[in-house]
Write a structure and sequence with these properties.
- It is a single chain.
- By secondary structure, the protein is an alpha/beta fold.
- Helix content is about 35%, strand content about 15%.
- It contains eleven helices and twelve strands.
- The strands form three sheets. A seven-stranded mixed β-sheet has the order 1-3-2-4-5-6-12, with helices on both faces. A three-stranded parallel β-sheet has the order 8-7-9, with helices on both faces. Strands 10-11 form a two-stranded parallel sheet.
- Strand 10, helix 9 and strand 11 form a beta-alpha-beta unit.
- The longest helix is centred in the first third of the chain and has 19 residues.
Length: about 350
């Protein structure tokens, strides 16, 4: 998730006028219908909005495309009338104001990718209290009063730690390459990894390095840690750009290519594929873009009267040496996040249909 979600400081500024912030909605370019969508006793076609803290990062753009593609299908089924994206441009206060504007404009469904786990609680609860179906995905609020769709970040770390421990035969020295200190996602992934690595007392953490989830600072941070610990046997890395930086360092310095865990950051996947012939191996996972589609489907089902779980935990995909070719995209930018779409029957199972 956060590996592609560059959250430099999300500032909380004074709330602007609702009319002004409402204008920040990004028309999907495929709105249709008069908004009431009723026809011959059928359920009303829904007015859907997506409130996102950012839209610029490639992960968000991929997510937006997936949601729009699914909206088109739902429009064809008469279940959605209108869809609009509201981009807060990194400003939590603006996101709050935009959600309030959607409440005033009587949206039926509000999807939320939150800029703050706590600051948005009052406004999403206000929306739910107004009868709007609110489904939060990816970056989650702590409120229990909305549907939340996400992945288990501790399990992310446990899965990676378990694989690395097994790969090293239970002994050796590793560098732990984590995200920024204090960031919840980073802390949770490392907690999970530590739990898994406790099973392997022969594995020692030579250095615990923190970096932004961007290639340039990650390369600098890893090079420094590696120069002080050149005899490592593996790397626990919890973000794609971090993994790419670690592998690049080893390749450039013509060092032994030790196992490095990773994420579906295409730059890392490309490097991985290039160096499988040299014996490089990894296990990677992803914060899948289809979380947005699952959120949309859950919202439409709930708005239509179906019972939907209040929390939907989506299994983490596994990218291995064996299925790597299904994920890596040679014709896509390094900063893209390739993912296999989840079949509709699997989505239906997750949302309880």
């Amino acid at each position: 998730m956060i590996g592609r979600f560059t959250r430099a400081a999300v500032t909380v500024t004074a709330l602007g006028a609702l009319a002004a912030t409402a204008a920040c909605g990004v028309d999907s370019g495929d709105s249709s219908g008069d908004g009431d969508g009723t026809s011959g006793g059928k359920a009303k076609a829904l007015k859907v909005g997506w409130s996102t803290i950012y839209l610029t990062p490639s992960w968000m753009q991929q997510t937006d495309k997936m949601i729009k593609d699914d909206v088109a299908k739902l429009k064809g089924e008469g279940k959605v009338a209108d869809y609009k994206v509201f981009n807060a441009n990194g400003d939590t206060s603006q996101q709050i104001a935009q959600i309030r504007a959607m409440i005033q404009q009587k949206y039926d469904v509000i999807l939320v990718d939150a800029g703050s786990s706590t600051a948005l609680n009052p406004v999403v609860e206000q929306a739910a209290g107004a009868g709007i179906t609110v489904v939060n995905f990816d970056s989650l609020v702590t409120s229990q009063k909305v549907v939340r769709v996400g992945t288990d970040q501790k399990e992310w770390g446990r899965m990676m730690g378990q694989w690395l421990g097994d790969k090293l035969g239970g002994k050796g020295k590793i560098i732990a390459f984590n995200g920024p200190a204090g960031v919840a996602v980073s802390e949770e992934r490392w907690q999970g990894a530590e739990e898994a690595l406790k099973k392997y007392p022969g594995i020692k953490v030579a250095a615990n390095v923190h970096s932004e989830y961007n290639l340039a600072p990650a390369a600098q941070a890893f090079a420094s840690a590696y120069s002080a610990n050149p005899d490592i046997d593996g790397v626990f890395s919890q973000g794609g750009a971090l993994s790419a930086a670690a592998l690049q360092t080893l390749v450039k310095q013509k060092k032994k290519l030790v196992p490095i865990t990773g994420e579906n950051y295409n730059g890392f996947l490309k490097l991985w594929q290039q160096h499988t012939k040299d014996g490089f191996s990894s296990l990677s996972t992803a914060q899948p873009n289809y979380l947005g589609v699952i959120a949309l489907r859950a919202a439409v089902a709930k708005a239509g009267g179906a019972t939907v779980p209040n929390q939907i935990m989506v299994p983490l995909p596994k990218i291995t040496d064996e299925n790597l070719a299904q994920y890596v995209k040679a014709d896509q930018p390094d900063d893209s996040y390739p993912i296999q779409e989840l079949p509709q029957p699997e989505i239906d199972k997750l949302i309880g249909k």
